Amino acid sequence: MQMCENDGVICFALWKRGIYAIKRDGTEVWRREPLKWSEISELPRAVEIVAIEVVDGSFCILSRGGGWAMISRDSGNTVEIGMLDSPQLIDRAFYNSESGWLLVSGNEVMMLSHLQGDVTTAVFQGPVNHATWDEEKSVWRVTGWRQDAILGTDVEFSARSDIGIHVGNYRREWYVLDNSGTWSKHLQ
Prior knowledge:
Blueprint: E1 2-6, E2 9-14, E3 18-23, E4 28-32, E5 49-55, E6 58-63, E7 67-71, E8 78-83, E9 92-96, E10 100-105, E11 108-112, E12 120-123, E13 128-134, E14 139-144, E15 147-151, E16 155-159, E17 164-170, E18 173-178, E19 183-185
Antiparallel strand pairs: 1-2, 2-3, 3-4, 5-6, 6-7, 7-8, 9-10, 10-11, 11-12, 13-14, 14-15, 15-16, 17-18, 18-19
């Protein structure tokens, strides 16, 4: 299940059931059938939704197989639909209105300013678990399997002894929560 909120309207997708929008009080706004992309319809789990984000006032829905659709917040109608030019299945996706998309596929991340744009790729030594946009430095901060990174114009990696689960900012410093429950500093 994926979920996102846009100005009081919550959009969520249920596997093989459909896409729904409700207000905060639970009132239904709209519902629709699951999205379909003919290019990936025969691939296992390719139409599974991995992200719902707010892009330009619409809900942007991204599938594991690279299918994407812009859905109207108010009506649930498809505004635009397409396919990423990526040969890999997407495990998770992160979005920031300033930077665009960071798509994770195993130990690779793909940075795109928009879903029909050029792709910049970085390869990690293992799976990537979390990423967040650092507005101050205009870079992605990433953590995963015994490795942290800063991704921007340049890529900077740093080894870590445990598995990074989450990266976040606390009092203007960047920290990583690892699999042992310990917080430690991310690359500065």
